[in-house]
């Protein structure tokens, strides 16, 4: 099973809509059955910056990709 954990940190202007947009991009990139868990935090020192930390596990390997055998 594919599992994805991600956290979004942004300034006070970060909106739930923007967080949802990031979640949709991630959701489109992983298995439709993936278990996705996310968190959100605000850091006023970040102004208009956004930082996303993502950890993913359980991806099946695909042959033919660079670095695979």
TrEMBL record:
Annotated GO biological process: cell division
InterPro entries registered for this protein in UniProt: FtsZ/CetZ (IPR045061), FtsZ_C (IPR024757), Tub_FtsZ_C (IPR008280), Tubulin/FtsZ-like_C (IPR037103)
Keywords, comma-separated and alphabetical: GTP-binding, Nucleotide-binding
Gene Ontology CC annotations of this record: cell division site; cytoplasm
Location of the Cell division protein FtsZ C-terminal domain: 4-59
GO molecular function: GTP binding; GTPase activity
One Pfam family it belongs to: FtsZ_C
Record PANTHER family: CELL DIVISION PROTEIN FTSZ-RELATED, MITOCHONDRIAL DIVISION PROTEIN FSZA
Protein name (record): Cell division protein FtsZ C-terminal domain-containing protein
